[in-house]
């Protein structure tokens, strides 16, 4: 299901989608796909779409535009998409107790708010290049702290922000309300400022090379990564995973070298590839948009066995490290 598909037999149904911003449309289609795949109950589908669109009536119109009509479904009794994440299963996973790294919780001051973050770094004085990490639309989780440790293990200072800090942190927000909180009006701009604040914190660290900061993010975090790349010229390299750009009209402002990561069966996100490719080609920046075989949306998340694709994930990890090694050198 792509961002532009509408349900059959309803003239003008697409207007409900047209009123949403690109991130809201992206999340609505993600939830709809989860329902159709049998991993999200209909009640949860309606509730989540209502929260990101502002009400039940709008949610119903959006779901009609996506081809989902009132009906019974075997998905009624299935568990929510984001419930009970499993343990890390990636061969690249790194323990918090690994002797080659040091990791701790930190605070990133941003716009008068203390944004909770997790910082992992290699043992040693450095200075090291740095990578910022943005989570999926369900907020922070151990998986993203693990990703920070993976980067630290191979020589980067890595920082991961909890973008629900203004709401008290991810754990303080009910799971079915997190996506709505992250996509509320004005939040896209706020999150760019949060990562700018993280860059300032990194640059003030004598163990960090301030001229060698990159960023990666997943799902919703991929969108945030594109947004930061659009508005922060000091970002040297970006690796967004399967997220559409939130500011597509600003892609021509990007100065970072960009590696886009996509799964071959993730049609709704892949629909944005031609727009991104055209814009990046016009900028002249180094870029590569890679589609991985045998992979769908969220294929990198090894704590979600229903979507994790180990072969594609490990290849994308190697490609990410190669990209950062080349462009943060």
Report on the architecture of this protein.
With 329 residues, the protein is an alpha/beta fold. It folds into 2 domains: 14-74, no CATH class; 101-327, 3-Layer(aba) Sandwich (Rossmann fold), CATH 3.40.50. The protein is built from 11 helices and 8 strands. It has helices spanning 14-18, 22-36, 42-53, 56-65, 142-153, 178-182, 187-203, 220-231, 267-270, 273-283, 310-327; strands at residues 101-110, 113-122, 128-134, 157-161, 208-218, 237-241, 257-263, 287-292. Strands 1-2-4-3-5-6-7-8 form an 8-stranded mixed β-sheet, with helices on both faces. Strand 3 (128-134), helix 5 (142-153) and strand 4 form a beta-alpha-beta unit. The chain is globular, with a radius of gyration of 19 Å.
Low-confidence spans:
1-13, 72-83
Label the CATH architecture of the largest domain: 3-Layer(aba) Sandwich
Structural class: alpha/beta
Strand order of the largest sheet: 1-2-4-3-5-6-7-8
Name the CATH superfamily classification of the largest domain. Alpha/Beta hydrolase fold, catalytic domain
User: Helix tally?
Assistant: 11
Order of helices and strands: HHHHEEEHEHHEHEEHHEH
What is the helix content? 25-40%
Question: How would you sum up the global shape?
Answer: globular
Would you state the CATH class of the largest domain?
Answer: Alpha Beta
State the separation between the terminal residues, measured CA to CA.
Answer: 39 Å
Radius of gyration: 19 Å
The beta-strand count equals 8
**CATH domain fold name of the largest domain:** Rossmann fold
Tally of domains: 2
Largest sheet features: 8 strands, mixed
Strand content: 15-25%
Mean pLDDT: 89
């Amino acid at each position: 299901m792509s961002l532009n598909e509408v349900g059959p037999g309803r003239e003008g149904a697409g207007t409900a989608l047209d009123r949403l911003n690109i991130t809201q449309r992206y999340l609505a289609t993600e939830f709809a796909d989860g329902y159709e795949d049998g991993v999200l109950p209909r009640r949860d589908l309606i509730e989540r779409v209502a929260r990101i669109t502002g009400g039940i009536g709008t949610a119903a119109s959006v779901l009609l535009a996506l081809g989902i009509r009132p009906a019974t479904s075997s998905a009624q009794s299935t568990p929510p998409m984001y419930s009970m994440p499993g343990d890390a299963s990636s061969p690249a996973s790194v323990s918090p107790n690994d002797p080659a790294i040091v990791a701790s919780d930190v605070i990133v001051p941003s716009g008068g708010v203390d944004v909770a973050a997790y910082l992992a770094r290699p043992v040693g004085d450095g200075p090291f290049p740095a990578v910022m990490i943005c989570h999926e639309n369900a907020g922070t989780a151990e998986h993203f702290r693990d990703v920070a440790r993976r980067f630290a293990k191979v020589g980067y200072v890595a920082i991961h922000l909890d973008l629900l800090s203004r709401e008290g942190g991810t754990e303080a927000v009910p799971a079915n309300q997190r996506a709505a909180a992250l996509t509320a009006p004005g939040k896209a701009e706020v999150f760019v400022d949060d990562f700018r604040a993280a860059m300032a914190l990194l640059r003030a660290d004598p163990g960090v090379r301030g001229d060698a900061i990159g960023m990666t993010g997943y799902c919703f975090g991929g969108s945030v990564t594109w947004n930061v790349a659009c508005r922060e010229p000091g970002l040297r390299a970006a690796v967004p995973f399967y997220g559409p750009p939130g500011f597509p009209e600003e892609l021509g402002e990007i100065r970072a070298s960009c590696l886009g990561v996509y799964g071959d069966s993730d049609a709704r996100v892949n629909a944005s590839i031609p727009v991104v490719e055209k814009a990046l080609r016009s900028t002249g920046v180094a870029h590569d948009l890679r589609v991985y075989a045998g992979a769908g949306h969220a294929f990198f998340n090894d704590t979600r066995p229903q979507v994790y694709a180990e072969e594609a994930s490990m290849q994308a990890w190697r490609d990410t490290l190669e990209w950062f090694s080349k462009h943060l050198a």
